Amino acid sequence: MATSLVKVLVHIVFSTKHRAPLIDDALRSELYPYMAGIVRRKGGALLALGGMPDHVHVLLRLKADTSLADLVRALKAGSSKWVHERPEAVPSFAWQTGYAGFSVSHSMERAVKSYILNQEEHHRRASFEEELVALLRRHEMDFKPEYLFD
Q: pLDDT for 35-66, tens place per residue?
């Protein structure tokens, strides 16, 4: 081929440290656009961003030469720094150390996007911990429950 054609969709999930409910409506309204800008600067395309006060879900398309780990590192570090530098800083704000990343097929893109954008409805039935364990099991990922949360 004369050119590289790549469409890699990834659903990423990470929480605040100790799942502290620090992302209120006011912070979310500025944090999500800021996070979208980080994804764009890293060459990705943000398809959906949603979450709850203690965690976020991101659906994005990776640029062909960007590693998932590098993008998530930039996303978490940049957004955390921004939260701390705002006039309404949240001194205790931090993201958990790790993250979960799941490949998404083109045929499931719309369903995953809907899932991410409807987090409040979903969390009427399940906690973040239950949600993450269910996602890991659905994707047949090996994990040790004692190491999932910090």
A: 999 999 999 999 999 999 999 999 999 998 99
List, edge to edge, every strand of the sheet that includes 100-104.
45-52, 55-62, 8-15, 100-104
| Alpha-carbon span 59 to 56, nearest angstrom | 10
What CA–CA distance (Å, rounded) separates 147 from 150?
7
Spatial distance between the Cα atoms of 125 and 136, rounded to a whole number of angstroms: 18
- Across 128-139, average pLDDT: 90
Q: Which of 126, 80, 124, 71 is nearest to 99 (CA)?
A: 71
Q: What are the strands, taking DSSP E only, across the chain? A: 8-15, 45-52, 55-62, 100-104
Domain boundaries, the chain: 8-147
The topology under which CATH files domain 8-147 is Alpha-Beta Plaits (3.30.70)
Q: What is the mean predicted confidence (pLDDT) over 60-84?
A: 96
- Total-model pTM: 0.92
d(CA 66, CA 148): 25
